[in-house]
Amino acid sequence: MDTSLFDLTGKIAIVTGGGRGIGRGIALGMARAGADVAVAARTFSEVDAVAREIETLGRRGLAVICDLSDPKSITSAVDAVVGAFGGLDIVVNNAGTNSWVPGPEHITAEQWDTVLTTNLTGVHLMSTRAYPEFLKRGGGKIINISSMVGIFGGKTIAAYAASKGGVEQYTKSCAIAWAKDNIQVNILQPGWIATKMTTGSRSNPDKYNNIVDRTPAGRYGDPEEFAGPAVFLASKASSFVTGISLPVDGGYSVNVTSATIGI
């Protein structure tokens, strides 16, 4: 097999929400594959630390402040990347937020707007801002981070589920529209991953055991396990792959029961 298909040397990427968790895992994975990577988030200290890690791998790293709820911030972030690195080839829309409530009837208008604006509108604004930069480079890659609840829904996270369901359909729409421009748009669907967002479930023995019991792999995933799938979707190896949703979940989404109950 020609492993050069996975080589990202000469490519320029931006990873939103790249200061920790899945975003950090993807950013470092792309750097190890040869890409120069801009890491974007609202907290400069976090993305700056990851940018420095990228530089220790021999690639250029850039810390960028970006608030996905602010269109001007998104434009400024992309401008900063293009100005520093000379272009843009890969966008990873990873940043997101959530609002936990007992049920949909408890979601306030403010909570709904915050989640939908960050998780869905932000993906749209970042993708469309990157589009003209991709055209200058003869193509590009967008990797959107969705969620299992984009498939299942969730009573305590209805706004989050709605936003991720929207990301699923928006991704397909962009994949169709931009295929002619040699732009591939795909999704990674995280399962239960050991990140800050899942601290609550991992600290609750009943929830933790229930999740691990249903996950065929028998554990939570590690953020660094997104590096391989992300590099694949960012590389020439996926040049004829667009509009797909790739679960990275240890088999959770294809399992209808638990190890204890069994079928």
Question: How is this structure best summarized?
Answer:
This protein is α/β, with parallel strands linked by helices and about 260 residues long.
User: Which sheet architecture does the biggest sheet show?
Assistant: 7 strands, parallel
Give the overall shape.
globular
Average residue-wise pLDDT: 94
Query: Which strand order do you get reading across the main beta sheet?
Result: 3-2-1-4-5-6-7
Helix content: 40-55%
What is the string of helix and strand elements? EHEHEHEHEHHEHHHE
Counted by DSSP, the helix tally is 9
Number of domains: 1
Radius of gyration, taken over Cα atoms and rounded to an integer in Å: 18 Å
CA-to-CA gap between the ends? Answer: 38 Å
CATH-wise, what's the superfamily? NAD(P)-binding Rossmann-like Domain
Structural class: alpha/beta
Description of the molecule:
The protein has 263 residues and is of the alpha/beta class. The chain has a single domain (3-196, 223-254), classed as 3-Layer(aba) Sandwich (Rossmann fold), CATH 3.40.50.720. 44% of the residues lie in helices and 14% in strands. The protein is built from 9 helices and 7 strands. A 7-stranded parallel sheet has the order 3-2-1-4-5-6-7, sandwiched between helices. β1 (12-16), α1 (21-32) and β2 (36-41) form a beta-alpha-beta unit. α1 (21-32) packs across α9 (227-234) and α3 (71-85) runs parallel beside α4 (109-137). The N and C termini lie far apart (38 Å).
